[in-house]
Automatic annotation (TrEMBL):
Segments forming domain HTH LytTR-type: 162-264
Protein name: Response regulator transcription factor
Molecular function per GO: DNA binding; phosphorelay response regulator activity
Organism placement in taxonomy: Bacteria, Pseudomonadati, Pseudomonadota, Betaproteobacteria, Burkholderiales
Keyword annotations from UniProtKB, A to Z: Phosphoprotein
Span of domain Response regulatory: 8-123
Length: 264
């Protein structure tokens, strides 16, 4: 690839803030790459690829309508040499593909050091000799494997991270780092190891998406991460208080939920 032929890319993700964040990080790590198109779903991604023919395509795995894997298959039919990068919340979806070198992937939230590694691999691939003639069929097989994993519902049915606006930035909070959640009128307060933020999703909706082996409701307005509990102090009238590891807040346990801590 010569300097007279600028490298171009397409970024597809149904979350506008995540698209913008990835494009901004690409500008820092790969200034020679020109992002010529954006897409909000798989169908838009395929249409944009057919129109723009970029060398690199960043595809979110989970998009409405046509998902990232289905879009990748359609793109491969247009150009078997297109370089694909999946962006996924579940690294298990793409491990096999990544290990065999046919497809690269990034795990949300995308971190700069990991993106730099991907950029280096993509640059080497694009500047090297033409791919092995067996590579397209290998990629097709890997796409089929990942699609099968998607149809099975993925490696975990539970929420993996929570999106929250902190100032002008979108914060992606790993669920494992959440200490507790508390209902706050129309919002939910999410408290994690490094801070807190309000989100619009009601607590009752979040409860159904959390792993019940890790998160329990202890009050009509409070859900706590069991791994974040330091100790529980019993009070009067069949109530108790939860003390947390490394946090000053004390959470109430109402009578209805006291049975969860009988052995503590």
């Amino acid at each position: 690839m010569t300097s007279l032929t600028p490298l171009t890319a397409l970024v597809a993700d149904d979350e506008p803030l995540l698209r913008e964040a990835l494009i901004g990080m690409l500008a820092r790590t790969w200034p020679e790459l020109r992002v010529v198109g954006e897409a909000r779903n798989g169908r838009e991604a395929v249409e944009a690829f057919e129109r723009l023919r970029p060398q690199v395509v960043f595809l979110d795995v989970h998009m409405p309508g046509l998902n990232g894997v289905e879009a990748a298959r359609a793109i491969r039919q247009v150009d078997r040499q297109a370089v694909l990068v999946f962006v996924t919340a579940y690294d298990q979806y793409a491990v096999a593909a990544f290990e065999q070198g046919a497809i690269d992937y990034l795990v949300k939230p995308v971190e700069l050091p990991r993106l730099q590694e991907t950029v280096q691999r993509l640059q080497e691939r694009l500047s090297g000799p033409a791919p092995d003639p067996d590579a397209p069929s290998q990629t097709t097989a890997l796409l089929a494997q990942i699609a099968a994993r998607l149809q099975q519902g993925g490696p975990s049915p539970f929420l993996q991270w929570i999106k929250a606006s902190v100032g002008q930035a979108l914060k992606l909070i790993p669920v494992d780092e959440v200490v507790f959640l508390r209902s706050d009128e129309k919002y939910t307060l999410v408290v994690w190891r490094e801070g807190e933020a309000l989100i619009r999703t009601p607590l009752r909706e979040l409860i159904d998406q959390l792993d019940p082996a890790q998160f329990v409701q202890v009050h009509r307005s409070v859900v706590v991460n069991l791994r974040a509990i330091s100790h529980v102090v019993r009070g009067l009238n069949e109530t108790a208080d939860i003390h947390l590891k490394g946090r000053p807040e004390v959470l109430p346990v109402s009578r209805s939920y006291l049975h969860l801590f009988k052995q503590m």
